[in-house]
Amino acid sequence: MKQQENTAENKMGVMPVNRLLLSMSLPMMASMLVQALYNIVDSIFVSRINENALTAVSLAFPIQSLLIAFGTGTGVGVNALLSRALGQKDEKTANKAAMNGLFLTVATYLVFLIVGLFIARPFYLGQTKDEQIVEYGVAYLSIVCVFSIGMLLQVMLEKLLQSTGKTIYSMITQIVGAVTNVIFDPILIFGLCGFPKLGVAGAAAATIFGQCLAGGLALYFNLKHNPEIRLSLKGFKPDLQIIGKIYAVGIPSIVMQAIGSVMTYGMNRILIGFTSTATAVFGVYFKVQSFIFMPVFGLNNGMVPIIAYNYGAGRRERVIRTVRLSVCYALAIMAVGLAIFQLAPQYLLYLFDASENMLQIGIPALRIISLSFLFAAFGIVSSSLFQALGNGVYSMFVSLTRQLIVLLPAAWLLSLAGRVELVWLAFPIAEVFSFALSLIFTVRISKTVINHIGETAVPPRTD
Predict the structure, then answer these.
(1) Residue 460 within a domain
(2) Structural domain boundaries, residue 371
(3) 3-state secondary structure of 354
(4) Which of 70, 106, 226, 236 is disulfide-compatible with 222, CB 3.0–4.6 A?
(5) Helix axes 276-313, 7-14, angle to 10 degrees
(6) 213, 228, 148, 142: which is closest to 181 by C-alpha?
């Protein structure tokens, strides 16, 4: 009976690595492609209002990125701790990690509730004085933050499913949420089917509606189809030791993504100094590049629990093979993305009803920025490797260097030449620095951690 109960978790220790990685990653890659689709659809419909509406949504990205940073960063910490505990057959710690993760999710929501109620307007006024952009932006960002509990719960509950290898359920929740958003975007933005015409606020409402539905579905799947984890409020109280372990991995991930929020805010300030169209182009870039990056992140979501489980179980060769395969797959995905951005940037911009001015700025922007894709492939995989092995500080340092120490200063210096096309060069420059640092840290963690996996591993139970 005990052996039967552990079948789902045992596949991460016994299934051939390539098949395991694909079985874990492909559902996540598919669901993240759907996520990328509905993010793009959001902006496509908003761009039909006018360019200021598109700019307003683009300017909201730093706060949205910060929200995602706290949600996914905490989830990464829970995922790594929970998968490692399952690899060591420590079910008590696994359950504590899950419940404390949900507690931290609610705490995070309360912070962003305050942001939505009181910070949205000052945030926009700090970037632009255009009254229409400010009003569009405040309406959009307030709704996203005030109702962010759906997104935060969805992220955490999906991480619980991923950590036990049940990525198919995670894929279903993301697809349901994304499809719901895509359906309700035009309905709420333009007032179709008897609904009121909400404009930019309708895009935000469609987003949170999809997220809340996905979060509820993820909760159902965890309660009914995830027996490795028991979610119960009975006797629960926050465990500071568990929270500390979660954030030992999670804080570097949060900081790493929060750095991206600061970078985006800084880039918006630099670009809007040229024209609001340049800011809109930057927002469009983040939407369309998600079609390339999201599958790589899906690959990583499948990779992390495999590495964490086999690290906990003391199986070094499986960890090494997982990393090698992940790098190869990530490079292949990024190569496809590079080709698309180089050969057909204008068609990507046409999706957003691009004006002649936007095409003039956007075509060279997409071509220049995409030069960083192949370097980014290795950096993304190595970052997840560091987190899975409990060395998230390496990921944080690489991200800090890339986005704040190199990218923003380089963009500012290049902007002094008065040519917006030069600003985009900051991205490949920063990614080369990031690649070099990631390579150094990967060699170091191989020598200090990976080569010693299994030497002090807890032997698996045989009962």
Answers:
(1) no
(2) 2-452
(3) coil
(4) 226
(5) 90
(6) 213
